[in-house]
Amino acid sequence: MFTDRTPILQLIENRFDGKPILVVGDLMLDRYIWGSVSRISPEAPVPVVRWDRECDRCGGAANVVLNLARLGMRPLIAGLVGEDADGRRLLTLLTEAGCDTRSVLALPQRPTSTKTRIIGGHQQMLRLDREEADHPPPEAVQTLTEHLLARLEEADPPGAIILSDYNKGVLTPGLCQAVISAGRRLGIPVLVDPKGVDFVKYSGATVLCPNRLELATAIPAPIGDLDNLLQAGEGLRQHIRVDFLAVTLSELGIALVDGGPHTTRLPAVAREVFDVSGAGDTVIAVLGACLACGLPRLDALNLANLAAGVVVGKVGTYPIAAHELLEAVVSAQALDQSDKICSLETARSRVAAWKARKETVVFTNGCFDLLHAGHVTYLEAARNLGHRLVVGLNTDNSVSRLKGPRRPIIREEDRARVLAAMAAVDLVILFDEDTPLTLIRALEPDLLAKGADYREDQVVGGNEVKSWGGRVALVPLVAGRSTSRIVAEIREDAE
Fold first, then answer.
1. Residue 3: pLDDT band with limits 50, 70, 90
2. I need a labelling partner for 395 at 20 to 30 A (CA). Which of 75, 216, 333, 427 fits?
3. Is pLDDT above 90 for 32?
4. Could you list the active site residues?
5. Among 393, 379, 387, which residue's Cα sits nearest to residue 361?
6. How many CB atoms lie within 10 A of CB 469?
7. In contact, 190 and 184? CB cutoff 8 Å
8. Which residues of 435-461 are buried (b: 16+ CB within 10 A; e: fewer)?
9. Is residue 492 pLDDT above 80, yes or no?
10. CB neighbours (10 Å) of residue 27?
């Protein structure tokens, strides 16, 4: 999942270094009324919700801010609220979370956008929206734009800028282009959660994070054919000069569209989905935090995908906390280990994706029966020859033919699982033949590693790897370490 988990874990533990990050967009107050349902109203065919409790939460762009605050960053928020009780309540929630609200303007005679959701058990029964139908006055948006540009010139600029568009009128084309241009000039990544049918106003941004429907609406294109939709998304990306798209696909995860030969798809990681509201806010918040701290885009997307899997398992708008994200990474590591064991078809797909990212793929093979320190040292050395290590593992039948009827000691599924638990190993694939030649031809690795007890001309697959421009490497072995020797000593002691 991650190129290297160590810096990811360190970044979360260090709370993303407390970097400042600017969020601009439509601010909302989310109000939840919780209760229980046991009967239908005699007045109309609707459920009766018996009030239990209520709470207020940050919504819209304010929810993006709250995600960032709970991750440990220093969020700056810019937007518009009304001069009313709901506006004051929203500012209080943001201030209590440690957010800088100096760039929030309060407008008279205009209500704060408020969504009231009535929840019966885990089910949303009704939503009431209170907001102004007309967009904010142009002079208010102009004042906000001028204030933002001045903030960006301060001594402590933000590590990233997030434009959170809920189509309420704050993110006009003029404001978007002014902020994006300033971000480009200052070397600050600009991330956009877009809305509407025209994405041209986001031209020049670093990344757009639409969901599947939003992308289909903007292109426009049929939503049902995902491959064609993502291909059309690449055309849109080029047209509006955006570095990459991170398309959220609900239960299908996230797709990275960046002009590469293959679209990278990250599968969803949620175990149980209660509520998807606010998941997009969490994705762009975590992605923005990662880019602000200099993480590669694929690692950033994987972390954002994990975060989304956490929040959709909660009811209501729920900002993720740093400790929850840390737990998600640790849990994913355990899942990744077993996921490393795969079929030839899956292996070919993963190897192709690694090569598309210019990563060097190393292949080695063996029985790895009774894994010992010599094996571990060898595999670590092989991995250090490139970026990814694929291990071809002899099946039990193959080992018996090579080593005799009393081998292997450890059955193939257990040997594969132990290999998959090693950080140096990226992929384990079983083969039943006496040699891995079929695997090597199918995967076309960049480098073929074998123990230094072989000569290069003895390495199976060596000529094939050289034919497509690869090379063979002989890895030194640890003296005195071998499975055969361990087995002989055990049997000698037993006798």
1. low
2. 333
3. yes
4. 281
5. 387
6. 8
7. yes
8. ebeebbeebbbbbbbbbeeeeeeebeb
9. no
10. 32
